[in-house]
Each structure stands twice: as C-alpha cells, then as structure tokens.
Design a protein that fits this description.
The chain is α/β, with parallel strands linked by helices. The protein contains eight helices and ten strands. The strands form two sheets. It has a five-stranded mixed sheet. A five-stranded mixed sheet has the order 8-7-6-9-10, with helices on both faces. Helix 2 packs across helix 8, helix 3 packs parallel to helix 5 and helix 6 crosses helix 7. It starts with a strand and ends with a helix.
C-alpha cells in the first residue's frame, strides 16, 4: 500500500507519495495554492507519475494553509511538524531548517533525535518570502525563475535598505530610475531576502547542518546570499520544495501503523 502527503500552501500545492517503507515513490508541484484546484491537480499528477490508483492509497495527511479545506485527506497535521519530519528524511542529522514559502518563513530547531524543539515564524510580513520575490521580479519585468541567473551576472550589490516589502519595491523602482544595473539590483534583493531569513535563524539558534526548504530554496541566488550572510553552508535538495508533503506522507505511515 501507498501513503500520501498533501501540502497546500498560499502559492502552490505539493503532493508526495511514499511506500510503507518510507521510500519515495512520486511527487508533484502545482503553482496554485489554497482556494484553487491546485491540491486536486497535484494529487492527480502524483498518482499519474506513480502509476497508482486512489484505491492504493492506504492513508493520507494534509498540511499547510489549506489543510482544513482539503476534505479528501484522512487527517490534518500542522505544517511545522510536517516540515520538521520531511527535513529529517531529506537530510538525516539536520539540526536547523529555514523554510521560505509563498507568504511566510519558518526557522526550525531540531534536536539530535530528529525532533522539533523550537521554531520562529514570520507570517505577518511578505518581506523575504516568495511573494516578495514575485513582486520584485514584476518590477524588474522578468520572471521569478530568472532571478538566480541574473544574480550570477552581478558585479556588485545595490543595497536594498528597507525591510518592508512595500518600501523595498519603491526603493527598487528608484534605483531603476537611477539606471542601476539589473543584475546588481537582483543581488541586493536576494541579500535583503537573506537578511530576513538570517534574522529568524539567529532567533531560533543556528546549529549545522542547516537545510533550506520551501519554494525559495530553488533560487540559488537567495541560498548563496544566506550562506554569505551567516557564514555557514546552506544545504538544499531536489525535495526542498516538497518537504512539508514529504513529512505529511511520513506521518501518514506512522498513523496507519498505530
């Protein structure tokens, strides 16, 4: 039998399928989150990739912002628990996790037994989140997926001093009016996002190894900026964006065994 985890965020929906031995089977990411058809589409795509039917799913767990609206799940679990569980599966021995999603960021402290022992969240401000990067990409008339490539072309950093997403947008527009090089602006934007993440990590305490999860982990520019800001290695994984869904699938396995 198979087990499913569905992570319904503000900006995207993720689904992971695992077998009873906690081995990965399939994953899917759909760029539509809570309140949309995203969760159902993510589940459908993961099932298609796995070649399984819904009757082969023994148990499922939903997590994320939209977990309470996803009635197809067998149970619902906090995203904090799921992200911690998924992070330990991705990187055994991980001690600190920074998760940056569409509209929030979380820093998690994990003990040497793989248990979540502390956390700090930023869910009141878009600064440093995926939404912040989306807005900045729009101002720069580019795609968010192209920001990391632009960062690599930078020969300097245009400092973005504001910690507020709205004021930072105005600051970037002013810098564009002054003909600041776009790659250098992108490098500054990434430094600004990294500064917010670093602040969360310092509050929760940093013990290596450090793993970055969430969709922003796909942006190599932010990952590099965070590593430079903190002076520590920031690990990522092809599973970083689906850490919450991974954890949900693992918890589904545990619940079914009880």
């Amino acid at each position: 039998m198979l087990y499913m985890g569905v992570d319904i965020g503000s900006a995207s929906s993720k689904c992971v399928i695992m077998d009873g031995s906690a081995c990965f089977v399939a994953k899917a990411v759909v760029p539509s989150g809570t309140g949309t058809s995203g969760p159902e589409r993510a589940v459908k795509e993961a099932l298609r990739i796995s070649g399984a039917g819904t009757e082969q799913i023994s148990f499922s767990i939903a997590t994320g912002y939209g977990r309470n609206t996803f009635t197809a799940a067998g149970d619902r679990v906090s995203e904090l628990s799921c992200h911690a569980k998924g992070a330990v599966w991705i990187l055994p021995g991980v001690r600190t996790v920074i998760d940056i999603g569409g509209q929030d960021a979380k820093a998690l402290a994990i003990n040497d037994e793989g248990r979540l022992v502390n956390f700090v969240m930023n869910d009141k401000c878009a600064a440093g989140t995926g939404r912040f990067l989306d807005v900045m990409a729009r101002v720069l008339e580019t795609e968010v997926g192209e920001l990391a490539e632009l960062d690599e072309k930078a020969d300097g950093v245009v400092q973005i001093s504001s910690t507020c997403a709205v004021f930072a947008e105005s600051e970037v527009i002013s810098q564009l009016a002054n003909n600041a090089p776009i790659p250098n602006l992108v490098a500054g934007i990434h430094r600004s996002a990294a500064a917010r993440a670093a602040s969360l990590l310092k509050r929760v305490g940093i013990t290596e190894p450090v793993l970055m999860t969430g969709g922003v982990a796909n942006n190599a520019g932010v990952v590099r900026a965070l590593a430079v800001t903190l002076g520590v290695e920031i690990r990522t994984s092809p599973f970083s964006q689906t850490a919450g869904a991974l954890g949900a699938a693992l918890i589904a396995i545990e619940k079914q065994r009880k």
